[in-house]
Amino acid sequence: MTAPLPLLIGPTACGKSAAAFELARRRSGEILSVDSMKVYKRLEIGVAKPSAPERAAVRHHLIDWKEPWESCSVAEWLAEAERVSREAAARGTFLIAEGGTALYIKALREGLFPGPGRSDELRAQLEEEADAQGLPAMYERLKTVDPAAAARILPGDRRRIVRALEVHALTGTPISAQQVQWGRLREDFPVRVVGFALDRKVLYRRIDERVDAMLAAGWLDECRALLELDRSHPLSKEARQAIGYRTLFAHLNGEGSLEDARTRIKFDTHHFARRQLSWYRRFEGVTWIEAAPDDRAETLADRVEQAL
Q1: Which residues neighbour 262 within 8 Å (Cβ) at sequence distance 6 or greater?
Q2: Hey, what domains does the chain have and what are their CATH numbers?
Q3: What's the pLDDT tens digit per position in 28-47?
């Protein structure tokens, strides 16, 4: 692959999906989803998947790829994303990547280090310790055994904290010492990144409006069906982590009112958007676009084309 893969990033509800769709439509192209939750079938409304008409109009890759009881590793996703990109290039098809999963974005740009495989037993033990001791205690442990990794990992990033502790326990070597190529962009797979920034108050308002719209569209019924499915096919830990779903699951199990759940989901999504922006600001080589509150998808697509 010689031409860089264009990649749109930004916090949830910033308008990147609509801009990517408009660009792909203009160029008779396709979209590569860079989203760890949209890979799952049956998770629809709460992960803001493209509509059926949108998917009919533009081909989307790595959406509805896994069943919700299956796990999906970053390495597995990256291999499939690279395959999709190579095949699109071979067909001469314009492909644009779009999404907000920071670790997927980092892997796409920098690759993955050849670390030890996952130890289910050790991972389960560390997860139990995180539940019992709290994530701050696990983060303090990481700062002791691998301060360099702790400096790069946000204190609330449970998955990466647990993985770093797992690698250290398995190898006796800090994960930061093994991730020597991270922080350097790949030469074999160039990616051109354009990021959307939006006024924080406007972003929060959009998030709140979208949560209300999702609930009005039947998100609770979707969660009810997933809980029913969970009885015969237990949902994977990854699928359960989707923002909002765990809160609605708790409500359906008798924990709190729907209005309490609505408020919690909005709060959690605000927090998630802040964490996304914290991640993205660490990325080098991103062309940032300041989106206006009234920007339409066509306007954002025009500005992305200029940036590319």
Answers
A1: 211, 212, 215
A2: 5-112+190-307 (3.40.50.300), 120-178 (1.10.20.140)
A3: 999 999 999 999 999 999 99
pLDDT average, residue stretch 179-188: 67
pLDDT value of position 234: 95
SS (H, E, C) the chain: CCCCEEEEECCCCCCHHHHHHHHHHHCCCEEEECCCCCCECCCCHHHCCCCHHHHHHCEEECCCCECCCCCCCHHHHHHHHHHHHHHHHHHCCCEEEECCCHHHHHHHHHCCCCCCCCCHHHHHHHHHHHHHHCHHHHHHHHHHHCHHHHHHCCCCCHHHHHHHHHHHHHHCCCHHHHCCCCCCCCCCCCEEEEEEEECHHHHHHHHHHHHHHHHHCCHHHHHHHHHHHHHHCCCCHHHHCCCCHHHHHHHHCCCCCHHHHHHHHHHHHHHHHHHHHHHHCCCCCEEEEEECCCCCHHHHHHHHHHHC
Q: How far apart are CA 212 and CA 221, in angstroms?
A: 14
Tokens of 110: 């920098």
Q: Which residues pair with 66 in a beta bridge?
A: 40
**pLDDT tens-place string over residues 129-183:** 999 999 999 999 999 998 988 887 888 888 889 988 988 888 887 877 665 545 5
Pairwise CA distance, residues 248 & 271, whole Å? 17
| Tokens coding 14 | 């910033």
Name residues whose C-beta falls within 8 Å of residue 184's C-beta, 6 or more positions apart in sequence: 110
Sheet containing strand 95-98, strands side by side = 59-61, 30-33, 95-98, 5-9, 191-198, 286-291
pTM: 0.81
